[in-house]
User: Fold DNA alkylation repair enzyme from Streptococcus agalactiae serotype III.
Amino acid sequence: MDLFLSLERKFKAASDKEVSKQQEAYLRHHFKCYGIKSPERRMLYKELIKAAKRQAKIDWQLLDKCWQSDYREYHHFVLDYLLAMSQFLTYNDCSRLEFYARHQQWWDSIDVLTKIFGNLSLKDDKVMNLLSEWSLDQDFWMRRLAIEHQLGFKEKTNTDILSLFILRNTGSQEFFINKAIGWALRDYSKYNKVWVKDFISNHYDELSTLSIREGSKYL
Assistant:
């Protein structure tokens, strides 16, 4: 059975024109949408992902075809699939994952890929070399991915890396970078308020107002 065609049939059957208009507007018309809300969308391919986990093998051909689509639902499927199959991902898959990060870009996909690369960085130190390069990338979405990759790490957070990646990106006028810096600081403040408070104090003049506001939320 062609899994892509199966997904397509399910997405089309569940489509909603009114929701589609709302979703496309929310995404600033960067993508087309069938108009399927997240819980319903995930139910449509729940069994497909379960089957993939049983097979313990990533179907890159299916994922690549889905990523080429103009419809955002296929991209979300790829991301949900990769999160579910994260235990099977290795450093050797980074070039494929990087392709996804550099294409069909928007904050919703980048922030999921952030988790995927973050998980990989805990398994293989070589991933950190890539993230370090991306923290200086011309593409601000790649810099955002690098800055945020330790979200949720708590005691596993490498504060030297967190500090380095943030300071490499201070002075930016890009909203999504300054927001990412704030979120990275805010997230770590849940575990270590003192470190974040000291960091903001020491670099107050370098950080944007947005980064300071977001980073100080739980202090």
